[in-house]
Amino acid sequence: MKNVLEIILVTYNRKQFLKNTLEAMFLPESPTVKYGLDFTILDNASTDGTSELCLDYEGLYPNIRHIRRSKNIGGNANIAGAFALAKKEYVWIIADDDFYDWSAWQEIQQALDSKLYDVVLTLKKSIKNSSDYPKIIKELCFVPAGIYKTANITGGVLQNAYDNIPFKFPHLAAACAVLNKNGKFYVPQKELISKIGADRTPCEILYLRDSDGAYKPEIIKNMFWGVSYINSLQLIKDRKLRAQILNNASDSGFFSFIFTRFRDNKRYYGDNFGNILLVWKCLNFAQRIKFFAALILIEIFYFYVPFTKASKSKKIN
């Protein structure tokens, strides 16, 4: 297993949560300890004592490598950089505030040992089977939800990951590349990640976190995650498959999904015509009709039921 899998943890200024994650990752029953897996921490120039904590762990475990960036390059750029560092057959990129159930590891290990799969999922959620692409791609928005075969992370895929940083899901470049080659996904029966961290930071806030006051274009700063997700689906080559995934992005259908996401975009950020144009380009004819109807309904909804603009620091679900 040591030659099959490596783990890369991305972090920035979450010392109190990172400590719990490191404790979990280095329990005796964890594969990090049992097999001495290479474990890299990509520290985005933390200032809260995170770096010192990482150095302490590096001194305790020889398989830990702590890389502290000289500047905070942003959470999404750090994720893209993690894919670029991967060298083993599979790479698992994890966050700094999640919980793990190692009793589920045996099943994951068997899938990795078989080397049949391009992505081994660590979550099942409501995914029906390994061909349930709408649910699979949506779950893979959560970075630690997938363990990726590094052979698929080509130079072109890395370029797509970096290009997709403004859309907040650079890791979907790897997931969509597997779809584009008709690759195989493994969906576990038991979830390895037992609980998502309680302090999960919304991706739109993560993108701006400690940006040193640098100006961000409105089209980027005012993009809710749902809008980012739709734009990220442009990485899927097959337009029919792209439409299928978008049509099933929500159990209640495409119209409900598009209405909810643009309603929230308006609620939290106000209007941004650029985001409307970006999404419009992603849709087929039938979807555009529903999208236009949803935008009209949102305007009517806001005219009669005005909302107090929410604070951007509020957690967005």
Descriptive report:
- The chain has 317 residues and is of the alpha/beta class.
- It has two domains: 5-195, Alpha-Beta Complex (Spore Coat Polysaccharide Biosynthesis Protein SpsA, Chain A), CATH 3.90.550.10; 217-304, no CATH class.
- It contains 15 helices and nine strands.
- It has helices at residues 15-25, 31-34, 50-60, 75-85, 105-114, 133-139, 155-163, 172-180, 203-208, 218-221, 225-232, 239-247, 254-269, 273-282, 285-304, and strands at residues 5-11, 38-43, 64-68, 90-94, 99-100, 119-121, 146-149, 185-186, 193-195.
- The strands form two sheets. It has a seven-stranded mixed beta sheet, sandwiched between helices. It has a two-stranded antiparallel ribbon with strand order 5-9.
- Helix 3 links the parallel strand 2 and strand 3.
- Helix 1 (15-25) runs parallel beside helix 3 (50-60), helix 6 packs across helix 12 (239-247) and helix 13 packs across helix 15 (285-304).
- The protein is globular and about 60 Å long.
- The chain starts with a strand and ends in a 13-residue tail after the last helix.
- Mean pLDDT is 89; it is low at 309-317.
